[in-house]
Amino acid sequence: MTVRTRFAPSPTGLLHIGGARTALFNYLFSRHHGGQFLLRIEDTDRARSTDQAVQVILDGLAWLGLTPDEPPLFQSTRAARHAEVAHALLAAGRAYRCYASAEELRLMREQALKEGRPPRYDGRWRDRDPAEAPAGVAPAIRLKAPRDGETVVEDLVQGSVRVANAELDDMIILRSDGTPTYLHAVVVDDHDMAITHVIRGDDHLTNTFRQVQIYQAMGWEMPRFAHIPLIHGADGAKLSKRHGAVSVLEFREQGFLPEAVCNYLLRLGWGHGDAEILSREEAIRLFDLDGVGRGAARMDYAKLTHLNAVWLRAADDARLAEEVMARLAGKPGLVSDDVARARIQTLMPALKERARTLVELAESAAFLARTPPLPMNEKAQALLDAPGARAMLGDLAQTLAAAAFTPAALHDALRGFAEAHGKKLGEVAQPLRAALTGATTSPPIDATLAALGREETLARLTAVLG
Ligand code: GLU
User: Fold this and answer.
1) Which residue has a Cα nearest atom 7 of ligand 1?
2) Which CATH architecture has domain 78-228?
3) CA 200 to centroid of ligand 1, rounded, Å
4) Whose CA is nearest to atom 4 of ligand 1?
5) Which of 166-170, 256-260, 363-367, 396-400 has the lowest mean pLDDT?
6) Do the two domains 1-67+229-314 and 378-465 of this chain adopt the same fold?
């Protein structure tokens, strides 16, 4: 058996971080077992399912590196097949036509509520002679669900979950207008897509009983189910906007790397010993459903930020330079792209040690891309205005004009200059840093000088010497 999993989002306009984790688990499970990962867009709500909403999902998955193995299947294209299966159930006596009017159903519900019973369809057309059908009424098709016994789901995460069949009514599978209900469409699609494992949020667990009844009525082999706990905020409530970012796109904008987001989501509700930092390859090797916990996972933004810093340090310098360039694009007062890119990439090994997100990285790299005169922060300005500072920088400019621009040679040149002037290295480096960066913190001064190059260094010094 080839393992086939699917991610089946409804296009609502965003890819929720919880959905992203569901996609990741499906992806990893299929890869771990040498199988396939598929995507089904559940776009039966035509009003909400715009092309744009679909694109958001595709973009989010692509960014996370969770590309499906086949083109996505759009549920809305399969209405005829959903109806066909409903009629097959009808022909097999496993479903029946129901002519109950909206008014009848309303009264049924009211009566049940008045008597303190859960509102359920009472099965009034289940065994009724179709000859009694009222003229001119289009019927819905309902599943003839078992009335005795129980329906059991052997869930790979939740264990054995059961419900008494008396608790479930005969659900509609095809509405009177011929459209399928959601639960029915999901079963037909999962069957036709040869899905072997349905891994989804545990908010779908109660749906599963009804879906199992459809499989049984059709005599179809059932997939295995795995319902994973939802993601909650730090306060235990279901994760929502007020907790912070919830959509994958927001995390991208806030400067998180996709590998950090995936690593974080993996560890959120899944564990393997004390493994914390996991690459995609390691995750594929280790992932299985027995490592998924049953308790609700809590979103911890601080932990995600920490993991992001770890992945940032491991990331390729040229790639990070591109990310920074994209974030600086369009800002006024910048040098040409090629010059900026070269400087940023040169200093990247030091820059990435100090940043936790791409936003921080871009902020700390921005000085490299600016044309002098640089904006100065208050502390930098104070250093430059200190008595003797400009005179010292004037002398230093002469030393630097003659120095070789490699970090090691610059280090020696600065040290020699400090000694010759009876100063500590910091007393030379700090005003110099202020002049070159507009701030009092930056990567090591020798690396910063080397990234700027001689010409630019001297131009920046000239700009502050006035
Ligand atoms: N479309 C459903 C959702 O977005 C998922 C259904 C399923 O996975 O079976 O929550």
Assistant:
1) 8
2) 3-Layer(aba) Sandwich (3.40)
3) 7
4) 9
5) 166-170
6) no
CA of 69 to the centre of ligand 1 (A): 19
Residues in contact with ligand 1 (CB, 6 Å cut-off): 8-10, 42, 186, 200, 204
Instruction: Name the residue of 16, 29, 42 whose CB sits within 8 Å of the most ligand 1 atoms, as the mutation to test its pocket.
Output: 42
Q: What is the pTM of this model?
A: 0.93
Of the candidate CATH numbers 1.10.1040.10, 3.40.50.300, 3.40.50.620, 3.90.180.10, the domain formed by 1-67+229-314 belongs to 3.40.50.620
SS (H, E, C) the chain: CCCEEEECCCCCCCCEHHHHHHHHHHHHHHHHCCCEEEEEECCCCCCCCCHHHHHHHHHHHHHHCCCCCCCCEEHHHHHHHHHHHHHHHHHCCCEEEECCCHHHHHHHHHHHHHCCCCCCCCCCCCCCCHHHCCCCCCCEEEECCCCCCEEEEEECCCEEEEEEHHHCCCCEEECCCCCECHHHHHHHHHHHCCCCEEEEEHHHHHHHHHHHHHHHHHCCCCCEEEEECCEECCCCCECCHHHCCCEHHHHHHCCCCHHHHHHHHHHCCECCCCCCCCCHHHHHHHCCHHHECCCCEECCHHHHHHHHHHHHHHCCHHHHHHHHHHHHCCCCCECCHHHHHHHHHHHHHHHHHHCCCHHHHHHHHHHHHECCCCCCCHHHHHHHHCCCHHHHHHHHHHHHHHCCCCHHHHHHHHHHHHHHCCCCHHHHHHHHHHHHHCCCCCCCHHHHHHHHHHHHHHHHHHHHHC
- pLDDT at residue 168 in the model: 92
Average pLDDT (158-185) is: 96
Residue nearest to atom 2 of ligand 1 (CA): 9
Domain boundaries, the chain: 1-67+229-314, 78-228, 378-465
Active site residue 424: no
Domain 378-465 falls under CATH 3.40.930.10 = no
